[in-house]
């Protein structure tokens, strides 16, 4: 499948998705969002691909929505297949619920819709020079894909309000301190670190990682008691899987497990 706005590359068991509008700081256009959705579907169907890396070309991860596209969408009636905002909402939700781990590699500018896209990833690793912020307030635009709805649960309500209201962008290490970013590395080490981490996850049981992600994501909207009941139920089911048997056998035999994903 040939795409120009999102480049899909496979490296072993990892699928690399690279946003590819560098002259526009990888701003989200309708075509880019649709290509991202198509690429994710290809990855979902390919059982050989066990982890996703999402990063950007050039000096930005993503500078948010292409405001020209937003303006154009506001001036036209919605088509039968929805508008730009519908497309963003749909693809971002696919990414949040994706059954395989998604690692975000924040290689540079990450603002507005770019921050919202980053928050759809499971783990974020940022380059030292990356500047990250919401920025919607700077343009009188309301966030629509998680800026106000998701950010407070990630970094705490006071921090989220400070960044939403001020529109400031902060260095990656500030976001590491607040808990949104999990690692910050030197700019020239980012790609290698993403590659190493993706390879590490790809060696683990895809079944257990998928189940962990599903329970962890859902637990945010559950009481602790409800989440614990579901976790135990998933564990009982998982213990009947081939991957669980392989892991226990490898532990007993003092060897590295080889997981089939079932």
Automatic annotation (TrEMBL):
Assigned protein family: Belongs to the enoyl-CoA hydratase/isomerase family.
UniProt-listed Pfam families: ECH_1
Residues that span the membrane, as ranges: none
GO MF annotation list: catalytic activity
Entry protein name: Enoyl-CoA hydratase/carnithine racemase
Family matches, as SUPFAM superfamilies: ClpP/crotonase
